[in-house]
Structures are given as structure tokens and as C-alpha cells.
Amino acid sequence: MRQMLRRKYTRERLAREQNVTFQHTNSAREQSQQACQ
């Protein structure tokens, strides 16, 4: 039971980290597009 909770917590943390990195790359891409314009 505790292992399942830990796995779920790890999955949520991984998803949150991926979301943060995705937002970071997204903002960087927008800045590069603005620089091109």
C-alpha cells in the first residue's frame, strides 16, 4: 500500500517537473520567435 502511494507521488512529481520544463521550453521558443520578428 505504501509503495503504491509512493509510486503515485513519484508519478505526480515527474509530471509536474515535465510540465515545468515544457513551460520553460515553450517560453524560450516564444522569445526566440519574438527575436526573429
TrEMBL record:
Record's compositionally biased regions (Polar residues): 18-37
Chain intervals for the UniProt region annotation (Disordered): 1-37
Residue stretches of biased makeup (Basic residues): 1-10
UniProt name for this protein: Uncharacterized protein
Organism of origin: Anguilla anguilla (European freshwater eel)
